[in-house]
């Protein structure tokens, strides 16, 4: 899956998003992140736990309404994981 376009339902700012799980969401700002009213009110650029709650809500709604799909990652298992393969040293 790739980044998907999304606009914040609150302020309309455009971002691209890739949603992997409830705990893992990648967001790319298409404009300066300080254009976000939440960031402007706090006086700094958003990152990590300081992300805009309105944008997070917009992402969650888009996932619930199936307008934003979650990416699925197939993780290797067993011998397919190089560090777990026989003869592989640490």
Quick tags:
90 residues; alpha+beta; three-stranded antiparallel beta sheet; 2 helices; 3 strands; Ferredoxin
Distance between the termini: 32 Å
Number of strands: 3
Q: How many structural domains in the coordinates?
A: 1
Radius of gyration over all CA atoms, rounded: 17 Å
Determine the number of helices (DSSP H or I, runs of at least 4 residues).
2
Biggest sheet statistics: 3 strands, antiparallel
Secondary-structure-derived class = alpha+beta
What is the mean predicted local confidence, pLDDT? 81
Largest sheet, spatial ordering of strands? 1-2-3
Low-confidence stretches: none
Shape field: elongated
Approximately how much helix is present in the residues?
10-25%
> What is the beta-strand fraction?
15-25%
Which series of helices and strands comes N to C?
EEEHH
Question: What do you see in this structure?
Answer:
- With 90 residues, this protein is of the alpha+beta class.
- The protein has one domain.
- It is 20% helix and 17% strand.
- The chain contains two helices and three strands.
- It has helices at 37-42, 53-64, and strands at residues 4-7, 14-19, 25-29.
- It has a three-stranded antiparallel beta sheet with strand order 1-2-3, covered by helices on one side.
- A hairpin with a 6-residue loop joins strand 1 and strand 2.
- It is elongated and about 50 Å long.
- The two termini are 32 Å apart.
- 12% of the residues are buried.
- It comes from Gordonia rubripertincta (Rhodococcus corallinus).
- This is Ferredoxin.
